[in-house]
Amino acid sequence: MKITDIQLGTLSAPLKKPFKTALRTVNAVNDVVVKIITDTGHVGYGEAPPTGVITGDTTGSIIGAIEAHIRPTLMGLEIEALEEALVKLNGCVVGNGSAKAACDMALYDLFGQLHDAPLYALLGGAKKEIITDITISVNDPDTMARDSLEAIALGYKTLKIKVGTDAREDIQRMKAIRDAAGYEVDLRIDANQGWKPKEAVRALLAMEDAGVDIEFVEQPVARLDFEGMKHVTDHVSIPVLADESVMSPMDAITIMQMRAADLVNIKLMKTGGIYNALKICAAAEVYDVPCMIGCMLEANVSVTAAVHLAAAKGIITKIDLDGPVLCSENPVQGGAQFNNSVITLPDDPGLGIRGASGITPLP
Question: What is residue 361's predicted lDDT score, i.e. its pLDDT?
Fold first, then answer.
């Protein structure tokens, strides 16, 4: 099974509601889709969202990296030699994690097809069903409480609450949500780098004193401020999850060695795909640090790849893969199936993606 072509296109899906964080507001998913074609007629699918404010990757840079560097590197390679292809993919250009991730998952998709097995099984997994949380965008306290109740009515047992715009109002937001939701659901909060270290400690201690009961706080401080994140970790009892700070396996290892966070978040767009995500999982197993797997605002191609990884690795204990359910439509055929919080993988080989409607081919 030899690579003979790499085709690119764009895919768009509107969101049910605007997605608001401390960093950005988004109204639609607009992703680059990758198809790696082989001489046997098999097609591997990958996907990458432009998330410049987080990864630095834009639509133009994703396309440019693939066309100028990744395509000439991968053309003619054999899928059987997966390790060789992945090493060359990671070495052909510096950075550009989203472009690498899209091609990485397409390679893994083809590898699963080559061996006629779903990817999660090849990665060592036995389960094919996982449970995700759902994100509540940052708004005024009443709106967030109402959105939380709507999610609970759909069966979600875990809510990830976006905060980080104003610490004092964040406290009021969390009080309002907990008062509305009661204590039958778990609340996670995600500051998206929105606080300073001492501000984060004050806000989290205030939430503790108010009895809000928070499962963990995600990325309370700026991504490069490892010392600041360690300060928060050392001064609050609420567990701290590193997200934007984990852009590579080395970042993850540094955080684990510093004990700067209690958990780390794996996102394929940050790590450059499954190949490096597996390295983070291995390090987390050594340091006994639980992982969450998350996504950007992505459609079902790339999220399906993340679901396969989550189903395969026991060190991944927290799931934040709600991107497709935030969309008003699913343009992808096959792949992971979403029934609100319950995500089920098919038994089809590879990622199980059969195609996608509405892809605009690039010239």
Answer: 86
Token reading at 279? 């390295």
Range of the domain at 308: 121-356
**Catalytic residue (choose from 35, 267, 270, 313):** 267
Quick check: is 162 catalytic? yes
- pLDDT digit string (tens) for 98-119? 999 999 999 999 999 999 999 9
Check residue 362 and give its pLDDT: 83
Tell me the average pLDDT of the chain: 95
Report the b/e string of 210-245 with b at 16+ CB within 10 A.
Answer: eebebbbbbbbbbbebbebbbbbbeebebbbbbbbb
Distance CA 98, CA 100 (A): 5
SS3 state of residue 6: strand
**Three-state secondary-structure class, residue 118:** strand
The CATH number of whichever domain residue 37 belongs to comes to 3.30.390.10
SS3 state at 56: coil
In one letter, which amino acid is 195?
A: W
The whole-number pLDDT of residue 305 equals 98
Three-state SS letters, 60-88 = HHHHHHHHHHHHHHHCCCECCCHHHHHHH
On whether residue 362 sits in a domain, the answer given is no
Helices 197-209 and 226-235 pack at an angle, to 10 degrees, of 20
* Residue 134 bridge partners (DSSP): 159
* pTM of structure: 0.95
Q: What is the CATH number of the domain that holds 310?
A: 3.20.20.120
Catalytic residue among 35, 100, 160, 162: 162
Is 198 catalytic? The answer is no
